[in-house]
């Protein structure tokens, strides 16, 4: 099996930020857009 690192990320406000930034641009649901916010947080970037 492949090894995968897991990084815990605080999901606080990801739906709100995703809705504001990405729903109109990407045309996706709020939940998918929240994933666009969670990923950079895991890499250390700040909203």
Task: Set out the fold topology.
Elements: H1 14-26, H2 30-42
Helix pairs in contact: 1-2
What does this structure look like?
The protein has 47 residues and is mainly alpha-helical. It has a domain at 14-43. The protein is built from two helices and no strands. It has helices at residues 14-26, 30-42. Helix 1 packs across helix 2 (30-42). The longest helix has 13 residues, at 14-26. It is globular and about 35 Å long. The mean pLDDT is 89.
Quick overview of this protein structure:
The radius of gyration is 12 Å and the shape is globular. It is an all-alpha fold. Helices cover 55% and strands 0% of the residues.
The helix/strand series, from N terminus to C terminus, equals HH
Biggest sheet architecture: none
Content of β-strand: under 5%
Number of strands: 0
- Report mean pLDDT, rounded to a whole number: 89
Large-scale geometry: globular
Question: Low-confidence runs (pLDDT<50, min 5 residues)?
Answer: none
Terminal-residue CA separation: 34 Å
Helix-strand makeup class: mainly alpha
């Amino acid at each position: 099996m492949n090894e995968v690192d897991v990084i815990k990320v605080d999901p606080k406000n990801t739906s709100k930020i995703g809705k504001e930034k990405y729903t109109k641009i990407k045309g996706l649901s709020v939940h998918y857009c929240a994933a666009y916010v969670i990923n950079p947080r895991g890499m250390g970037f700040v909203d």
